[in-house]
């Protein structure tokens, strides 16, 4: 109980809640996700037809739901929402463009199995994390995750359809309502706690109503979407196994593991639950099985979503049951295209107004991890230089990436990856003071 109060958690990881409450609390995690953005980008790069793009997004919803149930229910057993990773976008587009859509599934399957095997039976994953990711590194990686995600949310607001002034106003209203609900929950018991628990839903409703007054809400695509659609294995053709593509994706998976480990640190910090060896190895298995599910269903690799980890701190809800309800809802959205289309119609400035506050929550939770550590010159460099490199990577002109080798392109496509790698390496090579 003391740990829950210290972390601002209202509903703990293993607290029992009713199914109806789990549904409502899980729904706001689904509503706050931008999981359809990555597949839309990939579909555009692969020049998929409108029909195939819609089906691709549908499969991402379905795979996300299954992967979330696997990870939260049997893997890490913490409130972790899985979703399509942004890291492999360049690699998948390159492989699909050169070798065909079948080669995408063929390259994803072996890497997913390797990730799972690192957890069990090999049990190598936890040993590696323990050796190279102490609290100093873990806390810095959490801060890096938040900082790297901030420009993504802001750019999505600035470049969303419609007038930029209107977009900023809608995002500001959404974020303000979310902050007010959070503060009410902190300062007032009873009704204040209620507002905090469903703060994301309230913010989304307020933001969407504001956007509707400005004429930037369009639900017409829902009318044309089908009510029901069954998934199929390998919907874009049988897998094609190309050794070069497989090696590339295995490297990408390792980068994703570094990124998602940062998310697990966020969740651990927010919930107060220790990441012991058993939990870490199970998490690797859960990550691998989730990615395998995505490959089989024609989706993309799955990763723990940092934004949802930040929502735990905002709402004070860390219940596994709520997150598993999110997984069930996502599976339903994957089977009912009309509902998944409805979710995608929520204006981008609304989602990203929430996303910005989530990033703030992630950064501050990283600060909590490193707060007890003495910041001498060495630790200042271990913390500061990776943050600088993360921002530098985020601001790196895209034309620089076009002329770089593929493996450099994949690495520099994620500020989180660059920052996390830099933190690990600097902590290993800079001598510790006596």
From TrEMBL:
Alphabetically sorted, this entry's keywords are: Membrane, Transmembrane, Transmembrane helix, Transport
Q: Where in the cell is it found?
A: Membrane
Q: Per UniProt, what is the membrane topology?
A: Multi-pass membrane protein
Task: Give the superkingdom in one word.
Answer: Bacteria
TM regions (residue ranges): 22-48, 55-76, 88-120, 132-152, 164-185, 197-216, 236-258, 311-337, 349-367, 379-396, 408-430
The family this protein is said to belong to:
Belongs to the nucleobase:cation symporter-2 (NCS2) (TC 2.A.40) family.
Report what the protein is called: NCS2 family nucleobase:cation symporter-2
Organism (species):
Cytobacillus purgationiresistens
């Amino acid at each position: 109980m003391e740990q829950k109060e210290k972390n601002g958690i209202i509903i703990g990881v293993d607290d029992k809640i009713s199914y109806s409450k789990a549904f409502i609390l899980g729904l706001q995690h689904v509503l706050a996700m931008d999981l359809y953005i990555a597949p839309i980008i990939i579909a555009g790069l692969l020049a998929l037809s409108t029909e195939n793009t819609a089906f691709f997004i549908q499969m991402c919803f379905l795979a996300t739901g299954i992967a979330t149930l696997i990870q939260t229910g049997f893997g890490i057993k913490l409130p972790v929402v899985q979703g399509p990773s942004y890291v492999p976008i360049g690699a998948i587009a390159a492989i699909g463009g050169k070798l065909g859509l079948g080669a995408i599934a063929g390259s994803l399957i072996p890497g997913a199995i390797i990730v799972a095997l690192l957890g069990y039976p090999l049990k190598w994953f936890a040993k590696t994390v323990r050796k190279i990711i102490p609290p100093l590194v873990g806390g810095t990686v959490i801060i890096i995750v938040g900082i790297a995600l901030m420009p993504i949310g802001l750019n999505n607001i600035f470049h969303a359809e419609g007038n930029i002034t209107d977009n900023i106003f809608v995002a500001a209203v959404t974020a303000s309502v979310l902050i007010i609900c959070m503060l009410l929950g902190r300062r007032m018991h009873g009704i204040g706690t209620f507002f905090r628990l469903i703060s994301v839903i309230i913010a989304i409703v307020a933001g969407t109503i504001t956007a509707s007054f400005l004429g930037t809400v369009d639900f017409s695509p829902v009318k044309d979407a089908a009510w029901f659609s069954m998934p199929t294995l390998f919907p874009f053709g049988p897998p094609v196994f190309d050794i070069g593509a497989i090696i590339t994706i295995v490297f990408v998976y390792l980068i994703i593991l570094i990124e998602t480990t940062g998310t697990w640190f966020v969740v651990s910090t927010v919930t107060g639950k220790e990441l012991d060896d058993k939990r870490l190895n199970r998490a690797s298995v859960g990550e691998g099985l989730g990615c395998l599910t995505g490959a089989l269903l024609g989706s993309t690799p799955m990763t723990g979503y940092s934004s949802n980890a930040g929502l735990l701190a905002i709402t004070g809800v860390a219940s596994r049951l709520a997150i598993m309800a999110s997984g069930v809802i996502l599976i339903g959205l994957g089977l009912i295209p009309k509902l998944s289309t409805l979710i995608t119609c929520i204006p981008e400035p609304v989602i990203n107004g929430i996303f910005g506050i989530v990033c703030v929550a992630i950064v501050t939770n990283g600060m909590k991890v490193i707060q007890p550590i003495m910041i001498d010159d060495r630790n200042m460099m271990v913390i500061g230089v990776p943050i600088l490199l993360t921002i530098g990577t985020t601001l790196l002109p895209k034309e620089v990436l076009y002329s770089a080798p593929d493996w450099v392109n994949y690495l520099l496509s994620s500020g989180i990856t660059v920052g996390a790698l830099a933190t690990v390496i600097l902590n290993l090579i800079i001598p510790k003071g006596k």
